[in-house]
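Raw record, unedited: Polyphosphate:AMP phosphotransferase
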Amino acid sequence: MFESARLPHAMTKEDFALFETKLRESLLNAQFELAEQKRAATVVLINGSDGAGKGEVVNRLYDWLDDHFVETLSYGPPTDEERARPGAWRYWRDVPPKGRIGLVLGSWHHRALRNRALGRLDRVAYGNTLEEMNRVEEMLRLEGVYLLKIWLYLDDREARRRLAGLRQADGAMRRPVVLEWEEIDTAKERARLNEAALEMIEMTSTGDAPWAVVPADDPHYRDAAVGDLLLQTLARASSTAQAIAARTLAVAAPDLALPRPSVASALDLTQKADPDAYGAELRALQRRLTAATTAKSFRDKGLVLVFEGNDAAGKGGAIRRVREALDPRRFRVHGVAAPTDEERARPYLWRFWRNIPRRGDVAIFDRSWYGRVLVERVEGFASRDDWMRAYQEINDFERQLHEAGYIVVKLWLAISQDEQLRRFEDREAKPFKRYKLTPDDWRNREKWALYEQATTDMVDRTSSRHAPWTLIEANDKKFARLKVLRAIVERLEK
């Protein structure tokens, strides 16, 4: 999950200074409005690798906020007084009152991660702990506590390199550093910590309290991103969120906008298939797909294929090459359009649940349940609360399929704007292709940046261990078709 955190993120010193000036003013306005209303409290949970700058982020927030209404809540090993009470007691004791902001180091998430990494919690107990966290965090939100959960992401090797550079020969640190994971020192424990952190983010990222994974390579970008997230949280906590949001526009002006790389921008769309080898490669992959879906072992499984992508990215052509390798009695293609009145009268996942195939069969979805976090989000058909909670609902849906023996393969076909325009014009010029082009397709081009951001959020929040996204470079249709087939057979052959 959060593949975009691994992309380069940086701000120049000059851009940061401009951004900071506007951001600080907006943060103070939002903070004083919150303090005056006393309608909600805000709790910022700052987590991540040692060396990622947790302490620096706390200090930066103190620079930007009025410290009369902010407090730091830090937790290490429990004291004798805390051991004499339930484990959650010390967190409940320190919940800030409405109107104030709490900055938390060593939260309840840290405690669970530490115990899992050290082997003190098995997988089942850890899963139960995460479910309990969700219930508690939902209750906090209903009681007027807004959580901002931040994970500062830094590659493990880079984090260890930074710490080694800060540590003197006698073990002392050259400057203050928040160290929370020193006892996690074996390769096995670090691997278990990384896996547990990923599971925690998957399981406890809810609509009301989602995780925000912030790249921490560049301190300027890291601090600007955290400040921007805090401003958004304060806006939601305020009963006059619209007024604060209006002030936020100054921060989001084009010349000051926080750069947000998209997952699509990292793709090399110039890749092409070898035209001489294409036919042989295609047939070989199709044979592997046929073998995998007709094997005896597949009878106890099911295959769910999800095709999403830019308009005119070639989903139909890719699906056709998949169909050619399947027993026609054992698959169905579901073309997903706007919901019918019957479907609108039910929860949005209903129409997809009813099309899940029996084991031994294949369902191909040309568009899917991801419409809730793509077109419905961008076009305003779903409220922010609805599409934010949909990430967890979708993850739960796909997890249920996985646990029932289904293989979920999700494919995003990406093309450039120029290539899309060329394909639109080609469709418009050919009578037998005109049916593929609608006024909505042209209109959606004007919202390219919004769809690109929605796609990045979708991949970040729903590319789980059991149902990861595969991004397909689709400017060259033959390259895309081969990569689609390869992704499917490799999942089936695992």
